[in-house]
């Protein structure tokens, strides 16, 4: 924590110096020619547009435009989002599941164009790795929600807006290629076309990308901390072929009526080749070798239809329906070799099939009307979702169903909300809202037993923005949100993994209750240098009731295998500070150079009802940060970029019950993760550009040390895991007309 406090203090100090200098520069006689900069430097123009949208929003949010987002040639949206304030992922090579403010992905709501897109993830999240960053218009990270938003996203909501460039008749195409070290080539191609004719506007885009990911790792265990007790090495390579087709068509039927249709098609084909070596207790002799080839296809069809009607200058409405259908099909072909004293003993061939089908129908209606100084919005709607999953193993001609992965889940949510936006003093804006959600979740397990959970939640929200002076805003947000249980976790069936501490079996819990979370956010945004820069500080707090976490234990009835089970473990708190700055340095004589940084400090506290322990949330770091710069060279028409992303090291201690009912302390230390990215983009002409990037050039290793202590403080066992990371090099050429 001393390092965290020191870094926070130094960040605030530097921001203060830069702020004082920037204010002095604004008062100087020589006015910066920012309009010329915006024209020539696309990144700065993108920054100015993002800050304008951020300043106008009624609730606290961070906005990043596409030009700034795509500066580093990232293939997946996840790798680009990694550089945004407060964003982490659950591993050094993972960019699938966004974690805002350090806590689990279940607390982050991901929306595509303002609505959830169904995915095979049973936690209701969307895995953003298969969404190409090149097709993104902008990203909004909402810190505190409005009543019009679904009541998920206690940590925040990530709203990804896809391209929709109606303002110009034209199009674009880009082609890229690169290499992931020690893995293989990568590449992408995408194109789009847009325009308008009379009352008709359209955008149509498509993208294909070949990605590679490697999550190879090793794990070594020691009894009493020093005596070898087995281990494993896992070599793994993944390749992804991702396809996306998206469109948006708007037609003004009359002066007061507009019909919008937005279709989306997404397909991702994954191939994972993996070999795992398990060692005997001496960590020398080979005990088992498992070769597995996994193939997974994820596919989503979605269509959004909306009719917008303007009754008069004061009142308008939207009637819409969102239809989605998806699937995820996975096959695993495995060969397992067992050894005794390094001599081959047996060979077992097996196959596993997992099929998931998904459906979502979501109609709704919104009415906006102005009454004097009050802007009132009211809406109601529903979401009817269905998820069917079935997994079976085939070994020696015998079918072995995985009971924890055979179920059907139906979740129906009916909602209504109302909000009122008005001013108290003239230079402020207050948005007060109330949202009511009634949900019914019915799960049918492999034995045809039904489990139903009904819940009605009333979630108020209050968003206040006060303009202290030109460019300086103070914001306050208060809102109540929810976290609903993972759909896979609502049946008591056991899903088998390896039964080890690192990869335990999983048992569901049909008695899980939704978490209820109160949140408060308050902060200052100061837009400086004609909205080319910002100094921002935000303080947040969350209170959790019925907090859900996984409990680890030994299953005495099943060979002492490790099993994790989700439970409502008690209440908890999360609070922290978010700092953000971006400053062009012309006032120091450094023309066309901008520095930026963001940092999030988090502290969590959970009262565990099972053990009475007061501890941090599981796998929640103390501090994450980004620091970087971009430099535009006018003579070369080139922008250079640097970004260092860091998740700082931390240690957690969690008390658990062992098979005998004794309390043990499981201490896990997580190493620091540093990711350094470099980029350069050159505009050859107004229409043609070439960009280069070198990503993750530090190749940091993800190291974790897990130590179990008995009730007397003696070491029972210690496990070391290590996962290397890899660098990526990429070149992309883009042409637009």
UniProtKB/TrEMBL annotation:
Polar residues compositional bias, start-end: 215-224
Residue span, TonB-dependent receptor plug domain: 55-157
What PROSITE patterns does its record include?
A: TONB_DEPENDENT_REC_3 (PS52016)
List every stretch annotated Disordered. 215-237, 489-508
- Record Pfam families: Plug, TonB_dep_Rec_b-barrel
In this chain the TonB-dependent receptor-like beta-barrel domain maps to: 285-697
Please report the record's description of how this protein sits within the membrane: Multi-pass membrane protein
Compartments annotated for it: namely: Cell outer membrane
What Gene3D superfamilies does the entry give? TonB-dependent receptor, beta-barrel domain, TonB-dependent receptor, plug domain
Main subcellular localisation: membrane
Keyword Mitochondrion listed? The answer is: no
InterPro entries on file: Beta-barrel_TonB (IPR000531), Beta-barrel_TonB_sf (IPR036942), Plug_dom (IPR012910), Plug_dom_sf (IPR037066), TonB-dep_rcpt-like (IPR039426)
Taking the record's annotation, the residue ranges forming a coiled coil are none
What residue intervals traverse the membrane?
A: none
Keyword annotations for this protein, in alphabetical order, are: Cell outer membrane, Membrane, Receptor, Signal, TonB box, Transmembrane, Transmembrane beta strand, Transport
Signal peptide location in the record?
Answer: 1-25
> Which family would the database say this protein is a member of?
Belongs to the TonB-dependent receptor family.
Protein name (database record)? Heme transporter BhuA
Q: Which organism is it from?
A: Paenochrobactrum glaciei
Please spell out the taxonomic lineage of the organism that makes this protein: Bacteria, Pseudomonadati, Pseudomonadota, Alphaproteobacteria, Hyphomicrobiales
């Amino acid at each position: 924590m001393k390092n965290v406090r020191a870094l926070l203090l130094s960040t605030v100090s530097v921001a203060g110096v830069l702020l004082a200098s920037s204010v002095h520069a604004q008062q100087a006689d020589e006015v910066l020619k920012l309009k010329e900069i915006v024209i020539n430097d696309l990144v700065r123009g993108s920054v100015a547009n993002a800050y304008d949208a951020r300043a106008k929003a009624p609730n606290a949010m961070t906005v990043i435009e596409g030009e700034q987002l795509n500066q580093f040639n990232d293939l997946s949206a996840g790798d680009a989002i990694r550089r945004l304030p407060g964003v982490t992922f659950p591993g050094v090579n993972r960019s699938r599941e966004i974690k805002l403010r350090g806590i689990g992905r279940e607390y982050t709501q991901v929306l595509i164009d303002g609505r959830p897109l169904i995915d095979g993830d049973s936690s209701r999240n969307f895995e953003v790795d298969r969404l190409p960053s090149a097709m993104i218009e902008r990203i909004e990270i909402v810190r505190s929600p409005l009543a019009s938003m679904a009541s998920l996203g206690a940590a925040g909501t990530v709203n990804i807006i896809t391209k929709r460039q109606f303002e110009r008749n034209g199009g674009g195409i880009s082609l890229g290629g690169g290499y992931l070290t020690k893995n293989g080539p990568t590449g992408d191609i995408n194109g789009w076309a847009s325009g308008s004719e009379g009352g008709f506007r359209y955008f149509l885009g498509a993208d294909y990308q070949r990605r590679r990911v490697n999550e190879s790792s090793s794990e070594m265990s020691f009894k009493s901390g020093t005596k070898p007790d087995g281990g494993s090495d896992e070599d793994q390579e993944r390749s992804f072929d991702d396809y996306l087709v998206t469109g948006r068509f708007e037609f003004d039927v009359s002066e007061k009526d507009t019909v919008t249709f937005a279709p989306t098609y997404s397909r991702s084909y994954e191939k994972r080749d993996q070999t795992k070596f398990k060692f005997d207790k001496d960590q020398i002799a080979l005990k088992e070798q498992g070769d597995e080839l996994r193939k997974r296809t994820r596919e989503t069809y979605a269509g959004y239809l909306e009719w917008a009607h303007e009754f008069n200058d004061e009142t308008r409405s939207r009637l819409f329906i969102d239809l989605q259908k998806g699937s995820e099909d996975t096959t695993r072909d495995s060969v397992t070799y067992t050894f005794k004293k390094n001599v081959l003993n047996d060979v077992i061939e097996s196959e596993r099939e997992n099929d998931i089908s998904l459906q979502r129908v979501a109609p709704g209606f919104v009415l906006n009307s102005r009454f004097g100084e009050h802007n009132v919005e009211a809406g109601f709607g529903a979401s009817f979702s269905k998820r069917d999953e079935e997994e079976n193993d085939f070994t020696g001609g015998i079918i072995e169903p995985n009971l924890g992965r055979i179920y059907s889940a139906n979740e129906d949510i009916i909602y209504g909300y109302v909000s009122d936006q008005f001013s108290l003093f003239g230079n402020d804006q207050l948005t007060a809202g109330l949202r009511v959600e009634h949900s019914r979740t019915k799960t049918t397990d492999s034995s045809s037993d039904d489990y139903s959970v009904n819940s009605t939640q009333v979630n108020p929200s209050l968003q206040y923005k006060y303009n202290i002076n030109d460019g300086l805003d103070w914001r306050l947000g208060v809102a109540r949100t929810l976290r609903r249980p993972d759909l896979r976790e609502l049946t008591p069936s056991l899903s088998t993994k390896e039964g080890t501490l690192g990869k335990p079996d999983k048992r569901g819990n049909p008695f899980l209750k939704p978490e209820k979370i109160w949140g408060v956010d308050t902060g200052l945004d100061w837009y400086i240098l004609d909205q080319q820069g910002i100094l921002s500080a935000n303080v947040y707090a969350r209170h959790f009731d019925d907090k859900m976490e996984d409990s680890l234990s030994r299953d005495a009835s099943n060979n002492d295998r490790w099993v994790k089970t989700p439970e409502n473990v008690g209440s908890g708190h999360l609070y922290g500070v978010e700092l953000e700055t971006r400053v062009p340095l012309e006032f120091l004589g450094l023309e066309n150079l901008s520095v930026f940084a963001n940092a999030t400090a988090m502290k969590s506290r959970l009262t565990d009802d099972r053990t009475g322990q007061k501890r941090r949330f599981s796998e929640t770091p103390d501090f994450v940060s980004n620091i970087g710069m971009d430099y535009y060279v006018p003579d070369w028409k080139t922008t250079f970029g640097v970004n260092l992303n860091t998740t700082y090291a931390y240690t957690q201690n969690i008390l658990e019950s062992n098979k005998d009912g004794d309390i043990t302390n499981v201490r896990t230390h997580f190493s620091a993760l540093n990711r350094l990215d470099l980029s350069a983009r050159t505009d050859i002409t107004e229409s043609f550009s070439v960009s280069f990037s070198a990503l993750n050039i530090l190749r940091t290793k993800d190291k974790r040390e897990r130590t179990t202590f008995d009730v007397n403080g003696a070491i029972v066992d210690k496990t070391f895991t290590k996962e290397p990371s890899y660098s990526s090099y990429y070149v992309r050429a883009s042409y637009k007309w």
